[in-house]
Amino acid sequence: MSPGVTIKTVAQAVGVSPSTVSNAYNKPDQLSAALRERILSKAHELGYAGPDASARALRSGKAGAVGVLFTDKLAYAFSDPYAVGFLAGLAEVAEEFATSLLLMPLSSSDIQGGANAVRQAAIDAAAIFCVAGGHPALDMLKNRGIPMVSTDRGDHPDLSWVAIDEVEAAAKLGRHLARLGHRDLVVLVDNAEAAGSQPVELTLDEVGYTDCELRIRGLQKEMPDARIRLISGGHNAFSSGLAGAEWVLDSQHRPTAIVGLSDVQALGAMEAMKTRGLVPGKDLTVVGFDDIPAAGTAGLTTIRQPIKDKGRAVGRVLLDPEVKEHQLLLPTELVVRSSSGPAPRT
Amino acid sequence: MSPGVTIKTVAQAVGVSPSTVSNAYNKPDQLSAALRERILSKAHELGYAGPDASARALRSGKAGAVGVLFTDKLAYAFSDPYAVGFLAGLAEVAEEFATSLLLMPLSSSDIQGGANAVRQAAIDAAAIFCVAGGHPALDMLKNRGIPMVSTDRGDHPDLSWVAIDEVEAAAKLGRHLARLGHRDLVVLVDNAEAAGSQPVELTLDEVGYTDCELRIRGLQKEMPDARIRLISGGHNAFSSGLAGAEWVLDSQHRPTAIVGLSDVQALGAMEAMKTRGLVPGKDLTVVGFDDIPAAGTAGLTTIRQPIKDKGRAVGRVLLDPEVKEHQLLLPTELVVRSSSGPAPRT
DNA sequence: TCGTTTTTCTAGAACGATTTAGAAGAACGA
DNA sequence: TCGTTCTTCTAAATCGTTCTAGAAAAACGA
């Protein structure tokens, strides 16, 4: 835009008031078609590209964007098709409401920086995607009075969320494994601190993310006397699952089943088995969580959650004023494929 | 934020001028530490969460965000780890400059809507990620005077871009294949119109995206007398590569090599071979483009391009005023793995 | 002690739009 | 013809900051 060309410039050039030019763009029915045409063509002639976004945002109090907050680096966040599916669903609704998505990674190293970014962001609402409760950025949002919807159930009754019953979903997996006779599991967990180094064994307390913790509880519930070890190979990614599983498979004691708390990790575990000549579902059972597309082609037994719907629902709760229900529980389903089989007799 | 609490409210409460409150947040060295402390604590007490983003954006002329434009739905865009890598690099630099990323999918069905979204977006600059030149959204950006950097080389001398030499990169692939004796290829191409239906055979003119076209030219250059057919199974995705390759493998005439114009498509092709008991590199050669992480584990011969660097470079060109070079060519490299082998004698 | 510089703070004008309330004129019905 | 209702357009206030220029006070050097 040629510098200095504002709504006022155009108004003067055409010989009308600024309000009328504004209406030409925003409320076409408020003026005659002829005048509107005249204004628009003059604007084009002057190199005016339409009302300035910031000014509009200030005056109208609407930024026209929602923030998407997620932990850790972008690269890790989107290495999981699950995240991509969520975002796609959210984007769908956002588009419908003529709203953009503002990506806001909250690096775990620079907590304050993340909160700062949130403070400065011009957003009307925020989707909290797998961010641990209590993060200062969330307080910041609350302070700014920005509506937010989380993908995890919170404990606060007035918190909005769209989630699944993590415990019950994992319990389905647990029942399936128990029925197959498994009593010795390894659970592959997402853990930032294990990244870059050797896989580590964790206690339940050390598992950082609420949803992971709940899933583990769900397993324990249905398998009270099974041995369950928690192993992390790093961030939530294929490579972490691979690393974690390799470590487990090459150790003294192999479990009869490996549970990935996400499909990408479970797929990594399948890869580790493959290179060792082990057949999933026969030599060792592998199960996952999410049911991403690749799980189907790999024959991975997993828990399906309607991820795109989750994104859509979050979008609706955030943007659609008609939606009253602010706490939504989505259904899950056990999908049995070839990667799970009976535990070998000992 | 309690409604109506502005910088002015705080100023009055503390007994200073609005400018000073502003400085307390933005220029801490412009006032005494004691006063700053007093202002900040009073602000907190009043429930003031810091300067309003829109107002700041208007007054200072900086939105604090860059737009990321890409064609088609988000789900397709990010199904390719290549896109994720790019975004990760870009995000890294954006973070450094305290800038957010505004995602802007340009749906191919609603062209005007996309341009409109661009008009209303509060952004300082834009990264054009694989958007065909001539899209109205690009004109809109130009009109608004927003600096932009494309991931494709444009023909305009004053256009900014960070790209690879597509022709030369593909030529490396072509030389490799020619040396192995291949003279009958199928190229798997990204094509929106083939989505959802049967795979289709295209002519070079029908290939929509410039980069795809250039890559095909690169192949042709080094394999002047080879038979090269262009097949599309849909959008750029694993499933499209799978569908396209299945169609090819089950047809009357099998080529000796399949070229995926992206790794995800090539990996889909490998999957199609696997289910047919064919061994890549032996029964049929498969090569890809990009060198995403999964290419390594799958043993896919491919062209490596420094994708994260590409994102970083785009970020630098967009945000760093010190960077003068606005047209950057990044290096590529042929990575030979087990998926390519000599063409069988006929 | 007297200029001079530095520190600390302020007044008031932008930034570029949207909104509200209402004026002027046209159209309408009887 | 008159009063009423639409249609079309405008004036002026306002959104919440940041910026520029400069004033007042403090610190400094000699």
Automatic annotation (TrEMBL), chains A, B:
PROSITE patterns: HTH_LACI_2. It comes from the Bacteria. This is Substrate-binding domain-containing protein. Keywords: DNA-binding, Transcription, Transcription regulation. SUPFAM superfamilies: lambda repressor-like DNA-binding domains (SSF47413), Periplasmic binding protein-like I (SSF53822). The keyword Chaperone does not apply. Residues 5-60 form the HTH lacI-type domain. The keyword Plastid does not apply. It comes from Kribbella alba. Pfam families: LacI, Peripla_BP_3. The lineage of its organism: Bacteria, Bacillati, Actinomycetota, Actinomycetes, Propionibacteriales. CDD domains: HTH_LacI (cd01392), PBP1_LacI-like (cd06279). Transmembrane segments: none annotated. InterPro entries: HTH_LacI, LacI/GalR-like_sensor, Lambda_DNA-bd_dom_sf, Peripla_BP_I.
